[in-house]
Amino acid sequence: MIWKNRVVAKHLFTEEEDYDSVQKSMNDIADVLEKEPCFSGFEIIINFRKLPKGNGVLKVVDYANALIDEMYDFADQNAIWIE
């Protein structure tokens, strides 16, 4: 695949699993994505900023990981390299 765009965001990922750390990481990632024209059609970015705290079964990190998966799917579909 030929990548059309490159976005630097992986350094913003956290290995912490507490709500505040995960939410900060997702806000920081959203800040980067919102500045990138290649992510202009990524409508679920709003969800990066309002993560649920968890429900006893799913944790905040589970919600964040699902959104990160969506980000990678969008990137793959639009030839965007995320590093």
Describe the structure.
The chain is 42% helix and 7% strand. The model has no long low-confidence stretch (mean pLDDT 96). By secondary structure, it is mainly alpha-helical. The chain has one domain (5-77). The chain has helices at residues 19-35, 60-77; strands at 5-7, 80-82. Strands 1-2 form a two-stranded parallel ribbon. It contains 2 helices and 2 strands.
List descriptors.
42% helix; single chain; 83 residues; 7% strand; two-stranded parallel sheet
- The shape is elongated
In angstroms, what separates the terminal alpha carbons?
A: 16 Å
- Uncertain regions spanning at least 5 consecutive residues: none
Give the helices and strands as they follow along the chain. Answer: EHHE
Beta-strand content: 5-15%
Structural class: mainly alpha
- Total strands: the figure is 2
Largest sheet: 2 strands, parallel
Total count of helical runs of at least 4 residues:
2
The whole-angstrom Rg is 13 Å
Outline the secondary-structure elements.
Elements: E1 5-7, H1 19-35, H2 60-77, E2 80-82
Parallel strand pairs: 1-2
Nutshell version of this structure?
This protein has 83 residues and is mainly α. It has one domain.
